[in-house]
Amino acid sequence: MYVGIDVGTSVVKAAAFDTGGRQLAVESRPVGMSLRGGVVEQDMEEVYAAVLEVLGALTAVGRPVELAGLTGQGDGVWLVDGEGRPVRPAASWMDGRANELLARWLADGTFEAVFRRTGSAMFPGCPGPLLAWLERHEPESLDAARAALYCKDVVFQRLTGSGPTTDVSDASMPFLDPRTRAYDDEVVELLGLGRRRSLLAPVSDPVATAGARGEGLPAGTPVADGPYDLPACALGAGVTEPGDGLLIVGTCLAGLVATSELDLTGEPAGLYISTDRPGYWLRAMPAMVGTAALDWVLSTTGVRHEEVDGLLAGTPPGARGVRVLPYFAPSGERAPFVEPRLRAELTGVSLESTRGDLIRATCEGIGYAARHCLEAAGLTGSLAVCGGGTRSPAWMRLLADVLGRPLRVVEGEVGARGAVLAAAGRYGVPLDARAWTRPTAVVEPDPDRAARYAQGYAEHLDRLAQARDRARR
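^ thats the sequence. predicted structure below, dont judge the formating
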């Protein structure tokens, strides 16, 4: 069997597949996060222990493991010593402690200068601002560290016993020059991190591979490190042709479009994710908005997840005038624009508004944010969709209407599937990628509702522009 390991933000998963891509089994374990005053951290030992647990449960059936592909959450800062052990808790991609620092970089031109060189529009939880914050406020942690890694790289080092390394996908934000596929040292200096340059993990291009050392996986099992979850999902959903896109409806709402063109002009936003194929990138708009916004509204209104489809079906498009700008993240928004102080807004609410109105308005707002991301990323071809949101048929129909295009729904552990396909490519194992990435359904938009939502989208952009103005005051 082939194993894909996906180290997510709140859940660690391992999935087993047969040669034809059929998902055989999935094991998952939740992992915690510490949230306080905009600081979001994770215990690396807890995360790694969860990896060992899911692998142990998955391999207990006794089937031989042909190879394992590793993916996981991107960004953040995972500081480790020479043995790959944590020197402090991991700072999550959701972390907002560098908000003020990033605001200064936005004002003084540093933010734009970095984008023009690397195609990376920094946000508070990416390595540049986080490392610069630690340099100013917690230099002893940097002094104690051997490397500043990404999530999957920590797991790879521990599973294989290899030295610290990363791949071009994770390194893409914000230090990698997408043309040379190497770190841009001028960007490192721009962010005041010149004396910390040695902490940046060596970029393994092609992706690092090594044999497991016998912990979690049988000794000698071929393991590949990467790509991280966004490009892994693109691989797992079959998004490989320029113009085609993927929408990931998860904690993070991410729009990605495959491209062979690099354009570093225009409003700085999102990033270009380098891939295993030189000259081929994913134009990514990974928003902070996502299912976390809906979860907050569900919790606040006392609505259970299993009630969502019924409420969406019982509430008309437009939610009887209720509107939601769904930017609930404490670190603001990062795509398709960067606005650290932007916060959610609910309008049109009255004593006559129902729970269904609030739920539909939130789903519509997330849909508008998705459309904004995909348009900014340059979507021209087909669109695949994956993530936890696909479990709601009513929400998928709503999304197809809001986006005004068919959705190729890809279910199951798409990131883990992509990690296996990437590993197979690195090890020369012939797998039928078309069979592995076949959609489970295609959802067509309703023409009348799509026309209505096109107008709603224009109104959303107007409200958003006003909210961004207020956030800057």
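The mean pLDDT is 95.
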